[in-house]
Amino acid sequence: MESFFPRLQKCSDYNLQISEIERSSQPKLVKLLRKVPLFMGIIGNLLLVYLIKPIDTENLRGTVR
Predict the structure, then answer these.
(1) pLDDT at res. 1
(2) What DSSP designation does 54 have?
């Protein structure tokens, strides 16, 4: 299972692709159809980030780093 940062990086990559599509001179409908899978990828990755098992930090309580 991938961790937190690789999933966020994928979201960032998808967002850059969306920006490139938006700057293109294609018709709006074509742009939208090209962006929908990227939107779904971002939503999916953010959902998986949300569902990652949390780190147990109870034993570190009171520790200063």
Answers:
(1) 60
(2) P
